[in-house]
TrEMBL record:
GO biological processes: transmembrane transport
Gene3D superfamilies attached to this UniProt entry: MetI-like (1.10.3720.10)
Listed name of the protein: Peptide/nickel transport system permease protein
Species lineage: Bacteria, Pseudomonadati, Bacteroidota, Flavobacteriia, Flavobacteriales
Localization per Swiss-Prot or TrEMBL: Cell membrane
Entry similarity comment: Belongs to the binding-protein-dependent transport system permease family.
Any single Gene Ontology cellular-component annotation: plasma membrane
UniProt KW Zinc-finger keyword: no
ABC transmembrane type-1 domain mapped to chain residues: 163-353
Organism annotation: Algibacter lectus
Pfam families: BPD_transp_1, OppC_N
Amino acid sequence: MSSKSSSLKQLALQKFKKNFWGVFSLCFIGFVGVVSVFAYAFAPDNSQYANQMHLSIHSKRPGYTVTMLTIPSELKVNQNMFDKLFFGKKNTDSEIPISEYHIDGETLIYTEYASDGLEGVKKTMELSRFPNSDAVSFIKEKSFLFGTDKYGRDLLSRVLVGARISFFIGFVAVFISLVIGIFMGSIAGYFGGKVDAVIMWIINVTWSIPTLLLVIAITLALGKGFWQVFIAVGLTMWVEVARVVRGQIISTKEMQYVTAARALGFSDYRIITKHILPNIMAPVIVISAANFAAAILIESGLSFLGIGAQPPMASWGAMIKDHYNYIILGKPYLALIPGLCIMSLVMAFMLIGNALRDALDVKG
């Protein structure tokens, strides 16, 4: 039995490897996962939430470069490397875009950047504000590969940090939906009768409520926030898993190996977890991939409506909300870039779901 199971797994793996788009999607999802975990290591702006604002250079085109003066802060912040790597740097320094500067004795004289051909304000600063009176080392050219948003923040950094929410909400929501859906579907399908009728009534009532409306209601009940959105999305996706698991168990529980397990006196818990569930996980895996994509779209919709991840937290949906009006103002990339990120990640999960469906179809 084990050799047969092993051979089926190898056959499924071989079929999956032959699917170009499935393998490509898996690699892309893995790449996005690495970027999500180590977003602050890749982001040019590694401050918390990539929230370093420069209002004088807002809505600049991709590839824009400006001279940036960094004024060190006297406030000392104790932050370990782990915290900086995964949660961003608590930046207390001030960054000022400038158009020109020169040093006169012990004084730094600089002109703040002003757009639209305007002349910026000239200011002075004592060189003693800088370590070793070396102001030049704090003046550098800064490039914005994706340009800046309407608050003058680095758009590339916001996209990289925003990938974390869109990516991890899929994992959390699918995990919650699997735990609840497999539990409810297993009980309903295995025991049947009144238990099945009650659970199916709960499933049908939940199913009849529009998903986005139910998520909004749960979010309002739990409050606005990061984890509340994750939980709310997960609690709306379990019904599909439950229906699939219930149907599979109903068609499987009369199989000979289940009857043999009952004859040997095994408990219902062991029969469900050790004998039935391992043999019906193929369709559950496929629907989980689709739920990943659905969770990303739901979170983006909630953030667009303003009840998802709250500012200053970066989110692809919130970025579209902030910049969708720029589509008709000649700067569509501010909304299109996060939109393309959502589309590509959702497409990758749908393609890998199709590849898994084909690979796990042993009859094919």
